[in-house]
C-alpha cells in the first residue's frame, strides 16, 4: 500500500533529469536514494554535499518556496543548523510540484530516549531562541494547522480518538485532551517549527546538530514546539528540555498543558491513517499517546 492514495512517485532518474535541465552546474553529480523521508517528501542525495527534496503530495507543494523565504531569515538567530535551500526547482518532466536542493547536514535522527540532558537542553534552547525572532511579516498559522488555538481541533481530535478504537486508552485520552483545552490560550504568537518529531532532529555524538523539515513553520502557539518533551525525552532529559524550552514564556505551566494537547493532535490523527500504510509510524504515534498520558 502506498503512503497516500494520490502520492506522486519520484525516482533517481527523474531527479537526475530535473537537475540537469534546471541546474546544469550540478548535472555531473550522482543522484542516489537518500535517507528515509517522512510523510510528505522523498529524499535523494546529490553528490556528497547536497540533498534533493521531492514532495510526495499536494499538501507539501509549497514547502520549497516557504523554506527559501523563511529559513535564511531564521537561521542567523538559531543555535542549530537549518536546511536553507541552495536552489528551488520548478515543475517539469511530468513532476507537478516545486522541489528543492538543500545542503547535506551531518547527523542522524536519534531514537526516542537516546539523547541525554545536554542534547535536551540544546533543543530547548533552540525552541526558546526561535521565539525571540521578530514575527513581523511572518505567516500566521491558520485553519487547523499546528499552532492555532487548540479548540479549533476539538471535533477532529475527538473523532480521531474514537477512530483509534482499542489501540489507545480512549477515555484517558479524552480526559487529557480536556485538560489541555482548559489551559489558558496563548496570548501572543511566536515563530514555531511546528513538527519537532524525532525524524526532524539530527544529532551526532550525543549532541544536537540540526533541525530539518520546516513544512510547519509559521507564527502561532509556542506550545506546539514543546512536543519533544514526550516524543523524544524521558526523565531528566524531559526536565532539562522543559526548563530550557519554557524559559521566558509568560505562561509556562499553561503552555506545558497545551504542549500535551499538541502531542495528542499529531498522534491520534495520524495513528488510524497510517496503521496499514506505515505501521512503524503508527506504532510510534501510539507510543506518543502512551507517553503523554503517563505524564
UniProtKB/TrEMBL annotation:
It is an enzyme of class 2 (transferase). CDD domains: APH_ChoK_like_1 (cd05155). GO terms for molecular function: transferase activity. Keywords: Transferase. Signal peptide: none annotated. Its EC number is 2.7.-.-. Residues 36-262 form the Aminoglycoside phosphotransferase domain. InterPro entries: AGP_Transferase, Aminoglycoside_PTrfase, Kinase-like_dom_sf. This is Aminoglycoside phosphotransferase family protein. It comes from Promicromonospora aerolata. The lineage of its organism: Bacteria, Bacillati, Actinomycetota, Actinomycetes, Micrococcales.
Amino acid at each position: 500500500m502506498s503512503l497516500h492514495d494520490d502520492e506522486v512517485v519520484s525516482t533517481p532518474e527523474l531527479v537526475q533529469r530535473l537537475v540537469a535541465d534546471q541546474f546544469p552546474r550540478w548535472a555531473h553529480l550522482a543522484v542516489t536514494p537518500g535517507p528515509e523521508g517522512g510523510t510528505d517528501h522523498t529524499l535523494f542525495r546529490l553528490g556528497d554535499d547536497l540533498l534533493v527534496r521531492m514532495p510526495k503530495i499536494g499538501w507539501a507543494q509549497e514547502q520549497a518556496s516557504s523554506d527559501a523565504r523563511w529559513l535564511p531569515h531564521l537561521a542567523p538567530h538559531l543555535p542549530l543548523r537549518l536546511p536553507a535551500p541552495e536552489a528551488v526547482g520548478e515543475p517539469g518532466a511530468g513532476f507537478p510540484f516545486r522541489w528543492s536542493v538543500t545542503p547535506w547536514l551531518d547527523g542522524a535522527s536519534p531514537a526516542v530516549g537516546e539523547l541525554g540532558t545536554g542534547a535536551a537542553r540544546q533543543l530547548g534552547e533552540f525552541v526558546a531562541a526561535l521565539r525571540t525572532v521578530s514575527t513581523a511579516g511572518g505567516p500566521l498559522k491558520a485553519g487547523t494547522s499546528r499552532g492555532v488555538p487548540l479548540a479549533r481541533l476539538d471535533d477532529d481530535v475527538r473523532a480521531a480518538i474514537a477512530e483509534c478504537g482499542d489501540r489507545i486508552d480512549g477515555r484517558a485520552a479524552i480526559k487529557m485532551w480536556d485538560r489541555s483545552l482548559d489551559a489558558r490560550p496563548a496570548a501572543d504568537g511566536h515563530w514555531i517549527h511546528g513538527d519537532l518529531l524525532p525524524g526532524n532532529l539530527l544529532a551526532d555524538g550525543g549532541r544536537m546538530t540540526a533541525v530539518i523539515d520546516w513544512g510547519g513553520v509559521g507564527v502561532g502557539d509556542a506550545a506546539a514546539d514543546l512536543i519533544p518533551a514526550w516524543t523524544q525525552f524521558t526523565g531528566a532529559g524531559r526536565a532539562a528540555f522543559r526548563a530550557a524550552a519554557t524559559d521566558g514564556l509568560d505562561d509556562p505551566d499553561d503552555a506545558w498543558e497545551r504542549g500535551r494537547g499538541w502531542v495528542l493532535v499529531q498522534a491520534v490523527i495520524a495513528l488510524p491513517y497510517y496503521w496499514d500504510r506505515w505501521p512503524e509510524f503508527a506504532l510510534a504515534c501510539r507510543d506518543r499517546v502512551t507517553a503523554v498520558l503517563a505524564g
